[in-house]
Amino acid sequence: MSIFVDENTKVIVQGLTGGQGRFHGLRNRDYGTKIVGGVTPGKGGSDVDGIPVFNSVKEAVAATGATASFIVVPPKFASAAILEAAEGGITFIVCITEGIPAHDEAVTYNRLVEEFPGVRLLGPNCPGIISPGKCNIGITSGDIALPGGPVGIVSRSGTLTYQALHELSQQGIGQTTCVGIGGDPVPGTNFIDCLEAFEADPETKAVMMIGEIGGSEEERAAEWIKANMTKPVVCYIAGVTAPPGRKMGHAGAIISGSKGTAQAKMDALAEAGVYVCQNPTEAGEKMVEIVRSLGL
Amino acid sequence: MDLFEYQGKQYFGRFDIPTPVGDIADTVAEAVAVADRIGYPVVLKAQVKVGGRGKAGGVKLANNVDEVREHADFILGLDIKGHIVRRLWVEEASSIAKEYYASFTLDRPNKMHLGMLSAEGGVEIEVVAEENPDAIAFLSIDPVTGLDLESARRWVAQANLDEVAREQAATLLVSLYRCYTEGDCDLAEINPLILTPDNVVKALDAKVTLDENASFRHPEWDEFRATDTIDPREIMAREKGLNYIGLDGTVGIIANGAGLAMSTLDVVNQVGGTAANFLDIGGGANADVMAAALEVINADPKVKAIFVNIFGGITRVDEVAKGVLEALNRVTINSPIVLRLDGTNAVEGRAILAEHLNDALITEPTMLDAARRAVSLANA
A220-254: per-residue pLDDT in tens? Predict the structure, then answer.
């Protein structure tokens, strides 16, 4: 099984008529994802390579029955797009937009929680979600994923998500679902949400977790794993050599004082029984060993 | 982006947060002119983006023009933990009856804003949090509803601020919250927030970090940016719109995505090398960005090898490959380039480079192989 999405998930693309939206929307469709519509205000009635475009999410949902949305719009429009999706009846939102102001994210997240408790937001600033062979929403290159499980992947870093998929697929190890939660300060979906879903998914037998310096999400995940997780978890934390106090790319990746260091995170995860690895390749090799030892 | 104290105070001014009267000075003569205009006594404060300037002699009281000359001459050019003082903030000296602490920042685990207020200011808040956590009144603020004056009044009482300070402090906190939210700060901190003997509350210091993601709606930030970095490599990278941090090693790093870039640093380190920089070309980078990245790395004389580590997602590997060729056409690259290319359009990208490969332009199949190759070239 997959988590959050499957082969029946109907998806609309907010921003389908833009350059990135078109490229990745069509790529997702080519992968087999049910991309049923696009939304661009003022362009309703047109189509992108046969995919109908609507003026609003509400119209798109009414016409297509979509439950998921893939948001590919510039940062200044992203918060409004997320809320429009929730208001329009979408229950699973993937927002890949990078560069949204932190205050906008904080307001949007809390509005979702308060007004739309049934809606899950993945991202912003994430690569999206892929359930190999079934559904790909986002910017992940489908050919690096391998269907059939048994590994679930959750990652805070975009490109390291691809690296993790690649390491496993190269070794012939498939994935049930790979979720990129993104590295922004206020992610809609966190490690624990995904670990919980993987723990409950009978087809996922082990989980690979990719974290990075900054914040305390990995430490919280470690606590959750210690108390609840019965499946083996392998992790890699990026940023061991990062200098403190400098913002490494996105807001997530900053060490303030002694808090949020890679070492502190690795210690907490090791203490929770997680297999902590030094680089993505080592994490892949460790996962191969675990999957083989499970007789899969 | 971190602001200097004087910029923080100027930013506070936009939101009616009271601060002592003052002005900047880059020379001894300017310091004297500012002091003469404000009136004595004045305080001269080194403008550096590092803590501990008081202990380093970077903050001095001057009662007359001679003292201003003496102290300005001493502080300008002073090395405070590697930061050379190039600018002073000269302000009216404030009498202090009480020192408080106030700040707003994002509480990431709870996804709410966090206000911290303490009647014990003037010392590092981390120390207070460690030794006497009860002295800090924490306030969790829902970003949707914000902070109103009534809540601020309850908060200053809860923090045990002196009675005479409370009403002014509550008003100031609402203004500081506005500065934090409307001003798109990651951090807005006042330490100390003072009460004067004649019962005036004002911000004696200002620590402001701006959220660069919000710069599209803050054209006024341009003036802060002009003074932001001192590393010439970082200035060049910024001009080209790149996310670059200078380090001290010999392997130049270019990667897409912050996570992969950090991981590249880690792996280079693990195989015995040292990174010259962190450079994330970001998502969706085109050939121009890639070429600019190579030019920035190339300008760093310490670099002995360049490791380009790309896993395409929104970034297309064929664009990256075109950028590499474009850079090679545009400038002479001084160091060998080792590339690892995977992901979106990787086959097309590798094909573009295939006929150009030589001793100075090398591809490796994996991240580890490429790291080893780059490190061995850098160490040769």
Answer: 999 999 999 999 999 999 988 877 666 555 444 55
> In chain B, which segments carry CATH 3.30.470.20?
98-224
Report residue B243's pLDDT band, with 50, 70 and 90 as the boundaries.
confident
* Chain A interface includes B342 (CB < 8 A): yes
Nearest residue in chain A measured CA to CA from B310? A159
Beta carbons of A238 and B342 less than 8 Å apart? no
Half-sphere exposure of A79 (CA within 13 A, CB side): 16
Print the SS3 string covering chain A. Answer: CCCCCCCCCEEEEECCCCHHHHHHHHHHHHHCCEEEEEECCCCCCCEECCEEEECCHHHHHHHHCCCEEEECCCHHHHHHHHHHHHHCCCCEEEECCCCCCHHHHHHHHHHHHHHCCCCEEECCCCCEEEECCCEEEECCCHHHCCCCCEEEEEECCHHHHHHHHHHHHHCCCEEEEEEECCCCCCCCCCHHHHHHHHHHCCCCCEEEEEEECCCCHHHHHHHHHHHHCCCCEEEEEECCCCCCCCCCCCCCCCCECCECCHHHHHHHHHHCCCEEECCHHHHHHHHHHHHHHCCC
CATH 3.40.50.261 residue spans of chain B: 232-379
Q: Which class would CATH give B232-379?
A: alpha beta
- At A70, which amino acid appears? F
- Cβ pair B262:A246 closer than 8 A: no
The CATH class that applies to domain B21-92 reads alpha beta
Q: Which residue has the higher pLDDT, B231 or A238?
A: A238
Fold designation for B98-224: D-amino Acid Aminotransferase; Chain A, domain 1 (3.30.470)
Start-end of CATH 3.30.1490.20 domains in chain B: 21-92
**Structural tokens at position A182:** 């993104």
Q: How confident is the model at residue A70 (pLDDT cuts 50, 70, 90)?
A: very high
- At residue B265, what is the residue type? L
Comparing CB atoms, the residue among A100, A109, A242 nearest residue B262 is: A242
Beta-strand relationship, B337-343 and B361-363: parallel
Q: Which residues 114-153 on chain B approach chain A with CB closer than 8 angstroms?
A: 126, 142-144
- B233-259: b (≥16 Cβ within 10 Å) or e: bbebbbeeebbbbbbebbbbbbbbbbb
Is A250 annotated as catalytic?
Answer: yes
Q: Do A281 and B366 touch (CB under 8 A)?
A: yes
Distant-in-sequence, close-in-space partners of B239: CB < 8 Å, separation ≥ 6:
none
Say whether pLDDT at A257 is over 70.
no
Model ipTM value: 0.88
Q: How far is CA B318 from CA A97, A102, A166, B4, B311, in A?
A: 22, 32, 19, 42, 11
Q: Three-class SS of residue B207?
A: strand
Q: Which segment of A42-51, A212-221, A248-257 scores lowest on mean pLDDT? A: A248-257
Write the pLDDT tens digit of every residue in B70-88: 999 999 999 998 889 999 9
| Burial annotation B368-377 (CB, 10 A radius, 16+ → b, else e) | bebbbbbbeb
**∠ at Cα A70 (A65, A74), nearest 5°?**
135
